[in-house]
Amino acid sequence: MTAKARILVVDDDRKVRSFCREVLELQNFSVEEAENGAKALKKLEKTSFSLILSDIMMPDISGLDLASKVRGKYPDTFVILITGHASINLAKDAIQRGAFDFITKPFKIEELNQTVARALEVREKQLSVLPSPELKDLYDLTVNIDISKQSIQTYLDNLVSNLKNTFRGDSARIYLSGEPGGESLLRNTGSGKEEVLSEDIWEYASRATLGRKGGYLADEDTKHLPAENSGVFSLMSVPIPSPEGNLGVCIVARSRIPSSFTVRDLKLMGLFSAQAGNQLTNYSMASSLREQADNLEKVNILAAEFTSSLDTSQVLSSISRGLKAMVEFDLFGIFLSGKDMIPLSYMLVRSDIPDHVLGTSFRTILEKTQNSRDVQLFLDSGIRDSFASARSTDWQSSPMVEILDLGEFSSFRGMIVLASWSNDTISARTPSYVPVLIRHAAAALSNAYLFETSERNYIQAISALASAVDAKDPYTHNHSRNVAAYLTRIAAHMKLPSREISLLNNAALLHDIGKIGIPELILNKESSLTEEEYHIIKTHPEVGYNILRPVTAFGSFINTVRYHHERFDGKGYPFGYSGEDIPFHARMLTVADSFDAMTSDRVYRKSPGVDFAMKEIRKNSGSQFDPNISDAILALLSTSTPEEIVADYISTGSNQVIFS
Questions:
Q1: pLDDT at residue 256 above 60?
Q2: Cα(129)–Cα(420) distance, rounded to whole angstroms?
Q3: What is the pTM of this model?
């Protein structure tokens, strides 16, 4: 630089002009002043200046406009702008309008001297400003581009390439930390000849940057660049900031171009890095929101599936499938109990879990919040399913356990448990939606459990009513039991599945429940019934149907009860159905019911006997009775007496309504 370089100070504040003049003259510069942009331009018409130091905010011509005019008419004159605050937009405008650099008020004497000296040195070497096409690309990438429309890796690849090109580097890298403010950095992407630096030096520069707020600048003339620099002439590195801490580091290295990076370069790259940090932060927030929205949608879908049934086994199945699809765990368990209720215990565990594991630290953790007796019941009884997993697991370690206490739900007590012995599963980073999902599961399970308990109580009440119906008539107090014995034997003879036989047993035990509303005077009348009384008797199948209909567990056989007085020829009641329009199970019940009626004493007559009953069934096969079912009971009676059939039925303990 020359000793008598001429510098023009332009500012409408006389004190600022005087301060700058005094500082610069001490450096042996020739200094002149102008109080506004117009006067500065007039001076430029008469005198050439190496450098102009101008305030941005002036009443006539702004410093930015002055820089534009100087660039157009006096390209050899460099401009340094003075501003009250710096921003990336100011940096872009300043450079695009021809300014070399800017300093921010209040500035120190040392900063002013260094900025001026650097500008004059660059001017003397005739280095141009940063190439505007590359600068525009970098600006667009860090400010204007919508990062959400591309992958994060694509964005970072473009960013590192633009940094290398804009700052004329031979190579560039971006390192990212695992989380904001993290000290562990990993190379994410690079551009150019990365081999000009050894891996040790790349890592040294990245670590050094985290410890410097303004970034890291090194060249061959400084002590900061490691001795083993592989011929690298200059290097600069800046952090990628975010409100929660640095996200990583941007590094650019230069070897072939015979000039060092400047503080100005470092400052400018820092501005772009800050904008990149904003982009990455926004991208992370948007990604987090999208993930939360996706998870919330999944939770809502699963919650709807949980509550789609009031059958406890189906609810347990849907909860198990739902949690398995969204959360990695080694054990999922449920224990639910209430006053005068049969406890519910269910566990889904990895198939390779050793037997002793559940009785050690896992049990201890449960007993910290749960009744020890309940824990015992949970571990030692109930349903247990398993699933296979290939994850490596240290079963000797203490598990991570999530427990939801079901005491929060109505009058139940119990828990829902998720446990993992694997480090990479629920551990310390349980997703936020898991507790929500578990609460939905608890609510659905509690509702199903309460419903089934209520149904069980209702069934017991109905069974008691059915027994009361039989007890009304001393001649028929075992009628329902006998019908169930004959019907289940017919079903077994016809090789029906055990599930159907169980349903037929329930139907037979409850088939006359509708008679609870029939007056005893009619039921026990010794003489013939009047037409009106007979009409009342014929209402009992429909009454029974309406009594049983509210119980979902009875839904599969209530039509058997409703139509058991229909005839195969269509002359029965209540609707006069015929043939296969009558449900098959109802046709079976008709045969068993009629056989017991004919072989039992009644108040109005003595039993005509088994032989008479068999003849009537044979005679009315195809009219009153389904021929196939008639053949089945006749074949059955050819090898067993009614007494043997009933005795065998009683010995099995099946003479009660079965809830399943």
A1: no
A2: 60
A3: 0.41
